[in-house]
Design goal:
Blueprint: H1 9-39, H2 54-57, H3 63-66, E1 79-80, E2 88-90, E3 94-100, E4 105-109, E5 114-117, E6 120-130, E7 144-152, E8 157-166, H4 173-178, E9 189-196, E10 208-214, E11 222-229, E12 233-235, H5 237-244, E13 263-264
Parallel strand pairs: 1-13, 8-11, 8-12
Antiparallel strand pairs: 2-5, 3-4, 3-9, 4-6, 5-6, 6-7, 7-8, 10-11, 10-13
């Protein structure tokens, strides 16, 4: 905003004040409105602000209750589609910033990593951790799920889900690095300066299930292409308990498929 000008004498200066005040007020209002729209209404995973109420908390969350392409889905009855291309991964190692949002842990990654699905390049944005898993397979939930959130240059979203299950003797190497820096307090962040490779979350078998759904948190935006690896990965009991002690449950209930098909590439 330009500073008030003093040139032209005191009469000009005072004459400009009434004209500028509405502009100043309008700018302040717009900034406040933008901040409110960006943050949205408070939501949680239980009670009056839990998943069953998300659609009523904020008009921007309407899709959470009225959408017909919502996630997560129960993965069952997938149809084989041999025309589906393998996923291509171009992940580079780098530092991360872990954020405790009060609802879960989000790992923000530096730019540079991406995946290619059906010829579309999607940039890796962040990793979201959930306990238990968002997606059950034939009705059975995994102990945890990591959602690798990607976005294309034209704004389309693709999320890659990796299911994690407890194995006493087999800790996950990537989580071993991240869990040393878990921010325990809501609203805090920690910097992981180690060179972390997200490729450590990719299973040896890259077979996947896929469907069109939504974000699993408000505003529940639809049109998201989901890829769920068929093979799960192991985590140790200690790794599972470290997260569960912070978040007993941060998972959305299963949503109605509304006739959507789940496909498998193998």
């Amino acid at each position: 905003m330009d500073a008030l000008e003093f040139s032209g004498g005191p009469n000009v200066f005072f004459a400009e004040i009434p004209m500028r005040l509405p502009v100043i007020a309008a700018v302040v209002f717009c900034v406040a409105a933008a901040c409110a729209a960006q943050s949205g209404a408070n939501w949680s995973y239980e009670g009056k602000t839990g998943p069953l109420m998300w659609g009523k908390l904020d008009p921007a969350y309407e899709a959470c209750s009225r959408g017909h392409e919502q996630s997560p889905l129960n993965i069952r009855g997938a149809r084989l589609n041999k025309a589906l291309d393998p996923l291509e991964f171009h992940y580079i190692a780098g530092p991360m910033t872990l954020e405790n949002t009060g609802r879960g842990i989000v790992a923000h990654v530096d730019p540079g990593s991406f995946m290619v699905a059906a010829g579309v390049r999607y940039r890796l944005i962040e990793l979201d951790f959930h306990h238990p898993s968002e997606h059950p397979v034939k009705g059975t939930l995994s102990d945890m799920e990591v959602d690798l959130v990607h976005r294309s240059d034209d704004g389309k979203m693709a999320i890659l889900a990796v299911r994690l299950n407890q194995d006493r003797g087999l800790p996950n190497a990537l989580l071993a690095t991240l869990w040393e820096h878990l921010p325990a307090k809501a609203g805090t962040t920690t910097k992981v300066t180690d060179m972390v490779s997200v490729g450590g979350l990719l299973p040896g078998d890259r077979g996947y299930w896929t469907y069109v759904g939504s974000e699993v948190t408000p505003p529940c935006t639809e049109g998201v292409r989901w890829f769920i690896f068929e093979q799960d990965l192991s985590i140790s009991r200690a790794q599972l308990h470290a997260f569960a002690n912070l978040f007993k449950m941060n998972t959305r209930p299963i949503q109605d498929a509304h006739g959507r098909r789940i496909e498998a590439n193998e």
